[in-house]
Amino acid sequence: DSPLYLATREGHIGTMKVLLSKGVADVPRPFHTLAVPLITASRWGCREGVQLLLDHGANINDVENNPDALVEASLRGHEKVVQLLLDHGADVNAKGGEVFGNNALQIAAGRGDYEIVKLLLEKGADVD
Questions:
Q1: What is the per-residue pLDDT across 92-114, written as a single tens digit (0 to 9) for each?
Q2: Euclidean distance between CA atoms 23 and 82, whole angstroms
Q3: What span, in angstroms and rounded, lies between the C-alpha atoms of 43 and 71?
Q4: Which one, 56, 73, 88, 97, has least CB within 10 Å?
Q5: Which of 64, 66, 38, 40 shows the shortest CA–CA distance to 52?
Q6: C-alpha angle 102/103/105, rounded to 5°?
Q7: CA 70, 75, 78, 79: dihedral to nearest 10 degrees?
Q8: Which one, of 11, 20, 76, lies nearest residue 46 by Cα?
Q9: What is the pLDDT of residues 69-95, one digit of tens each?
Q10: Residue 106: CB partners within 8 Å, gap ≥ 6?
Q11: Phi, psi angle pair for 20, to nearest 5°
Q12: Number of H helices and number of E strands within the chain?
């Protein structure tokens, strides 16, 4: 695992800042859901980490057989992270890679998460 991924997984924002300031990028990753720092920060609801990674050019819509960041945040009910991702141009209709065949709206609706469903619909999520 890359140092950036490990720092992100543990929520060490200071370490993430140091690594990113030195130009450390994530190394090529295996195809599993925890390998990408942005997805990891979204999964754990680490809004500050998500913002930091976005500020350093993280690709918000990079799925590549992984659930995307928006799907992860929606799955775990992290409303503030969902809002942040949407504000930064997350694809509201992207499906979660081969691992998760559903989009964020389907996942949030299945969880009964009214607030996230409302956010996604306001951003134009497809109800079909």
A1: 998 875 556 789 999 999 999 99
A2: 26
A3: 9
A4: 88
A5: 38
A6: 120
A7: 70
A8: 11
A9: 999 999 999 999 999 999 999 999 988
A10: none
A11: -65, -35
A12: 8, 0
